[in-house]
Design brief:
The chain is of the alpha+beta class and about 675 residues long. The protein has 24 helices and 17 strands. Helix 13 packs antiparallel against helix 14 and helix 20 (about 570-590) packs antiparallel against helix 23. The radius of gyration is 28 Å and the shape is globular. The chain starts with a helix and ends with a helix. The relative contact order is 0.10.
């Protein structure tokens, strides 16, 4: 009997190992399917002229021959181009513009809808008859023009390309991906193998080990630790992003300024912020990669002090102030000193970054395993951009990182946990709940802590023996409390949405499948590096390099990690937790699709059930939403072991490439460099 039990125990880790191998290969296949599309077609560049006869879906205009006159607040028309890959648009008027006319062009990829993030704004000045606009290169099947003024339409010339299928190249890429996947499979199955027979490989690894050992020895002499490296790198690169990315270019910065004024009771700040935006021509730069910042105008705006007479202080505090607290320290310091608005914004970004660095140092100090991949996630370009700016992420990300590290520390390092050890996790969870509720699911990591470590007492009586004795009853009570909570909150937006998805499983699964198929690639890009208002993505080559680097760093086994006894069951638990949070976030954002598609009857469960039939995608999800729990996912994918010395040189190479490439990318986007 005991032998059969031992056999089953031995089989269980093997089954989990096989399951994690399958999951890893499936993830690779999903990523490859995105990048494979880049190699499927050749482009034959051409120009397409679209006269007034090509205009479709005219709304909000009265048309007289080629003259269009707006009749409401949202006039627009659509052009469906024959070319598929669009680079730039040349708009020509039949007569000079009588006044300045604001124009916004929306570009929609196949299967997607128009949205604010996929648009470009520019101005036709009085007296002009034409304007040429570079838009984000992409495959678009329709273009929408919102022109806020009367004009004579002469034509639109689209500079783009026809797509021709490249069978040979696409086949070659399939072969390359297959070879890489087979190699990965080999490494995953055979975690250790003898390299004595491979002389060239042995010589290469020997050279690599020698250089790595020399670097490691140098680092020890100079006392260069991972925590010190994180501190210097985060401050240097984070400050570079903060200064290079102009005001209002990080997503929703103006909205967060407005929220801060409401939360703290300060009026007049947003108005001066908007004035500064206009003085440096932010509107023309926003989502318009063809326009650069005026350096002289930006420097001049740094010299204009804030007008305190326009500020009205009625200080009060709401619990939500904590969402912006790190950034507000610098913002209010600048206001008290009467510094220019732009300087106040820079100070707020600096204090947010300092908060992130402090929390990051604590995270690395507490994290007992996989410090390298945790450090790499915290130093992702997207993480640094968000944590050196004014938004929720500058609070949420550091707090989530610290909470995860604390739970891993409790699981592997701490021998006993008492009441005082619950204080910090509870505070962190309260901050997370106030900032963004879905991330409270990270609290499930508590269940990974061995119950034998929990020494909680009421007076002289220990709680855990009582819980173990009556666990079935306690679980039943907790389930009832949870059900009662759901019932009480049944008419809140997100609970109604979840109920609608359960009642309409076919529509829900269709939306989830369509969303992942259409947007998985953009999630990966936005997870790693997509600067500004999502208009400056890093190249696909860098994105692949970064994701592979994170996977490699996840395989590093630090000193003493084997003594912790990391089992595959805990890795699977982390994978399920990370995947579940991805699904939850995508599901919740279906409500954003209701707004974008202008569906009105979505205030009841029945209304949402009907609306699900009209929705194709869950819109508004960004890859950076997955960063706070990314460590759980990469921890679960640590399936074999790489020695530290073989990662050290690669880490240096990785961070140098990351810093130099991304800083240069942002400089080129916003400044004439």
């Amino acid at each position: 009997m005991s032998k059969s039990k031992n056999k089953n125990k031995n089989k269980q880790p093997e089954k989990l190992h096989i399951l994690m191998i399958i999951i890893t290969l499936l993830l690779c296949a999903l990523v490859e399917s995105f990048f494979y599309n880049s190699f499927k077609y050749d482009r034959s560049y051409t120009k397409e002229a679209c006269d007034v006869g090509r205009i479709t879906d005219i709304s909000g205009y009265t048309q007289t021959d080629s003259h269009l006159e707006p009749t409401d607040e949202d006039p627009h028309f659509t052009i469906v181009p024959e070319v598929r890959f669009v680079k730039s648009i040349y708009l020509e008027l039949g007569s000079p513009a009588g006044a300045d006319i604001n124009v916004r062009i929306y570009h929609a990829a196949p299967g997607s809808n128009f949205s604010q993030t996929n648009s470009t704004n520019f101005l036709i000045k009085q007296g002009e008859t034409s304007i040429e606009l570079d838009i984000e290169d992409g495959i678009y099947d329709k273009l929408r023009f919102d022109i806020d003024g009367g004009f004579d339409y002469k034509g639109v010339t689209i500079d783009g390309a026809k797509l021709i299928k490249a069978s040979g190249r696409s086949t070659a890429m399939l072969v390359i991906f297959a070879v890489l996947d087979l190699l990965l499979l080999f490494l995953l199955i055979f975690k250790r193998f003898d390299i004595k027979e491979y002389a060239l490989l042995k010589r290469f690894l020997g050279f690599f080990d020698t250089k790595s050992n020399a670097l490691e020895s140098f680092g020890k002499k100079k006392k260069i630790t991972l925590i010190r490296f994180f501190t210097v790198y985060a401050l240097v690169v984070g400050i570079a992003y903060s200064f290079i990315i102009p005001i209002a270019q990080v997503p929703d910065e103006q909205m967060h300024i407005r929220l801060i004024t409401y939360e703290f009771g300060i009026s007049g700040l947003e108005e001066q912020y908007i004035d500064e935006m206009n003085s440096v021509n932010t509107g023309a730069i926003l989502i318009n990669t063809a326009v650069k910042e005026d350096f002289d105008a930006y420097i001049d705006s740094l010299k204009i002090p804030m007008d305190k007479s326009k500020l009205s202080l009625n200080l009060h505090f709401t619990p939500t102030v904590i969402r912006h607290l790190p950034a507000c320290v610098g913002l209010f310091l600048g206001i008290l000193l009467g510094l220019p608005v732009l300087v106040c914004v820079q100070l707020s970004e600096l204090t947010a970054l300092i908060f992130f660095v402090i929390m990051g140092r604590l995270t690395l100090k507490l994290m007992p395993v996989k410090k390298e991949v945790m450090c790499a996630i915290m130093l992702l370009p997207m993480t640094l951009q968000q944590c050196a700016s004014i938004n929720y992420d500058s609070t949420l990300m550091p707090v989530c990182f610290l909470f995860v590290a604390l739970m891993f520390n409790y699981k592997y390092v701490r021998q006993e946990l008492h009441w005082k050890d619950t204080i910090i996790p509870i505070i962190l969870l309260i901050v997370i709940a106030i900032t963004k509720v879905p991330y409270v699911l990270l609290a499930l990591l508590v269940f990974a802590i061995p119950s034998s470590k929990i020494i909680l007492k009421l007076g002289k009586h220990a709680i855990m023996p009582f819980i173990k004795k009556y666990k079935i009853f306690i679980i039943a009570v907790l389930v009832l409390i949870f059900a009662a909570g759901l019932y009480v909150a049944r008419n809140t937006q997100y609970i109604m949405l979840l109920r609608a998805c359960i009642l309409e499983p076919k529509d829900y699964l269709r939306i989830m499948y369509g969303t992942l198929k259409a947007y998985l690639g953009s999630y990966v890009v936005n997870f790693v590096a997509c600067f500004g208002w999502l208009d400056t993505p890093a190249s696909p080559v860098y994105i692949v390099f970064s994701m592979i680097s994170l996977l490699l760093l996840a395989q590093y086994e630090g000193q003493g990690e084997r003594t912790y006894g990391i089992n595959k069951g805990f890795k699977l638990f982390n994978f399920i937790l990370a995947a579940g949070m991805v699904v939850l976030i995508i599901t919740i954002m279906i409500t954003w699709s209701f707004n974008i598609d202008e569906l009105t009857d979505v205030t009841t469960v029945d209304g949402m059930r009907k609306a699900l039939d009209k929705v194709n995608f869950s819109l508004g999800v960004q890859g950076r939403y997955f960063i706070p729990f990314a460590f759980c996912g990469f921890f679960s994918l640590s399936l074999f072991t790489i020695k530290r010395n073989r990662l050290l040189v690669y880490q240096i190479f990785y961070y140098v490439i990351e810093a130099v490439y991304t800083v240069w990318l942002v400089l080129g986007r916003y400044w004439n460099i």
